[in-house]
Automatic annotation (TrEMBL):
<comment type="subunit">
    <text>Homodimer.</text>
</comment>
<dbReference type="InterPro" id="IPR015421">
    <property type="entry name" value="PyrdxlP-dep_Trfase_major"/>
</dbReference>
<feature type="binding site">
    <location>
        <begin position="224"/>
        <end position="227"/>
    </location>
    <ligand>
        <name>pyridoxal 5'-phosphate</name>
    </ligand>
</feature>
<feature type="binding site">
    <location>
        <position position="281"/>
    </location>
    <ligand>
        <name>N(2)-acetyl-L-ornithine</name>
    </ligand>
</feature>
<feature type="binding site">
    <location>
        <position position="142"/>
    </location>
    <ligand>
        <name>N(2)-acetyl-L-ornithine</name>
    </ligand>
</feature>
<feature type="binding site">
    <location>
        <begin position="106"/>
        <end position="107"/>
    </location>
    <ligand>
        <name>pyridoxal 5'-phosphate</name>
    </ligand>
</feature>
<keyword id="KW-0963">Cytoplasm</keyword>
<dbReference type="GO" id="GO:0003992">
    <property type="term" value="F:N2-acetyl-L-ornithine:2-oxoglutarate 5-aminotransferase activity"/>
</dbReference>
<comment type="pathway">
    <text>Amino-acid biosynthesis; L-arginine biosynthesis; N(2)-acetyl-L-ornithine from L-glutamate: step 4/4.</text>
</comment>
<keyword id="KW-0808">Transferase</keyword>
<feature type="modified residue" description="N6-(pyridoxal phosphate)lysine">
    <location>
        <position position="253"/>
    </location>
</feature>
<dbReference type="InterPro" id="IPR005814">
    <property type="entry name" value="Aminotrans_3"/>
</dbReference>
<comment type="similarity">
    <text>Belongs to the class-III pyridoxal-phosphate-dependent aminotransferase family. ArgD subfamily.</text>
</comment>
<feature type="binding site">
    <location>
        <position position="139"/>
    </location>
    <ligand>
        <name>pyridoxal 5'-phosphate</name>
    </ligand>
</feature>
<dbReference type="GO" id="GO:0006526">
    <property type="term" value="P:L-arginine biosynthetic process"/>
</dbReference>
<dbReference type="InterPro" id="IPR004636">
    <property type="entry name" value="AcOrn/SuccOrn_fam"/>
</dbReference>
<keyword id="KW-0032">Aminotransferase</keyword>
Length: 413
């Protein structure tokens, strides 16, 4: 038998080189802490990219995993199952939606939403109404359709011709949107807070204008809440704090707390345009994923948890402001709930990765949102002691990076 001993170096030997993971290998997590192969602990502000909203190894989720895992994991969509029906009912009770479609990821949820929007337009208006309006710096997934709709060309270049009829406009530019949305528009897709694009909240007036333009021109408004959904913004879905209701909402990431699941939510009238066989999935809506997600939704939707998100948000922003008083490295700290972006000043432009690496060296896991923004997306239940200790570690990392820059500048004189 081959030697199955593995290290970080093994990644470079056996994996397709699409990722550049950290130097340490996490092996265990509990709450907001993670331990690596050396037994070293890290405080987790990354949350698996805004996924582990209830932290690691949540006891109630472990219980569901064991109970459902001993009954039925997978059955296929030639049958239905009780957990997926309960999950659909729970999500529909919490939102505008009447119908749900379950997939395995945010990309698949967005793929379904975009296909549905084109099908609705085709059925109602004919083949000429197919244009999709999206926004620069948006991110909607890595399938070829969703990456083409996303507003970051670096992800779609080099794969051949992209699908036709996709228009990218500046985010939060109401005038540009009203000029572009017209008779050929079948859908407008927007993140209520751009995540990968830099943690940029939408102006409520901008979203309201999109809603009115879609209504005027018979287009559907899609909210991509893959990152902002399931409590992340301090509301169960971010749209609920905007005064705007979409026609279709997509959700994933935190929905399964790390177990792969995504969903597209919509109304009865729109869902009716997807007939049997028009779209599908093998794993989507399987009973194991659905049972876990149902428990996640039950726990996160409680008023106490959502209030806790808003409280932690204020604490996190205040702590970052305090750190900035000392170092002056943030141009802006923005976001909602526990999706916070700290944009670096021009002196540190393009160096977000350096801060993430330094944070890991000091025992904190962090994210970037592009090369200029540090992103914080911790557990919605993060203990305040962990939040304080984690930010103390981040502050030490910032001290190390700024000191190194000062030393380099001094040596260059």
């Amino acid at each position: 038998m081959n030697d199955l001993t593995v290290t970080r170096q093994t990644f470079d030997e056996v994996m397709v080189p699409l990722f550049s993971p950290a130097a340490f290998v996490p092996v265990r997590g509990e709450g907001s802490r993670v331990w690596d192969t050396q037994g070293r602990d890290y405080i987790d502000f990354a949350g698996g990219i805004a996924v582990t909203a209830l932290g690691h190894s949540h006891p109630e989720l472990l219980k569901v995993l064991q109970e459902q895992g001993s009954q039925l994991w997978h059955i296929g969509n030639g049958y239905t199952n009780e957990p997926v029906l309960r999950l659909a009912k729970r999500l529909e009770a919490l939102t505008f939606a009447d119908r749900a479609f379950f997939a395995n990821s945010g990309a698949e949820a967005n793929e379904a939403a975009l296909k549905l929007a084109r099908r609705v337009a085709f059925d109602r208006f004919g083949a000429d109404k197919y244009e999709i309006v999206s926004f620069t710096q948006s991110f909607h997934g890595r399938t070829f359709f969703t990456v083409s709709v996303g507003g970051q060309p670096k992800y779609s270049e080099g794969f051949g011709p992209i699908p036709q009829g996709i228009i990218h406009l500046p985010y939060n530019d109401t005038e540009a949107a009203l000029k572009a949305i017209g008779a050929k528009t079948c859908a407008v897709i927007v993140e209520p807070i751009q995540g990968e694009g830099g943690v940029i909240p939408a102006d409520p007036a901008f979203l309201k204008a999109l809603r009115e333009a879609c209504d005027q021109h018979g287009a559907l408004l899609i909210f991509d809440e893959v990152q902002t959904g399931v409590g992340r913004s301090g509301h169960f879905y971010a749209y609920q704090d905007t005064g705007v209701t979409p026609d279709i909402l997509t959700t994933a990431k935190a929905l399964g707390n790390g177990f792969p699941i995504g969903a597209m939510l919509t109304t009865t009238a729109i869902a009716a345009h997807f007939k049997v066989g028009v779209h599908g999935t093998t794993y989507g809506g399987n009973p194991l994923a659905a049972a876990i997600a149902e428990k996640v939704v039950e726990l996160v939707s409680s008023p106490a948890v959502l209030e806790g998100v808003r409280t932690r948000s204020e604490l996190l922003k205040a702590k970052l402001a305090k750190i900035n008083e000392r170092f002056g490295i943030f141009k802006d700290v923005r976001g909602k709930g526990l999706l916070i972006g700290a944009e670096l000043t021009d002196a540190f432009k393009g160096r977000a990765k350096d801060f993430v690496t330094a944070a890991a060296n000091h025992g904190a896991m962090m994210l970037m949102a592009g090369p200029d923004v540090l992103r914080f997306a911790p557990s919605l239940l993060m203990p305040l002691d962990d939040l304080n200790e984690g930010l103390a570690r981040v502050e030490k990392a910032i001290e190390a990076v700024t000191a190194a820059k000062a030393t380099t500048a001094e040596a260059a004189r």
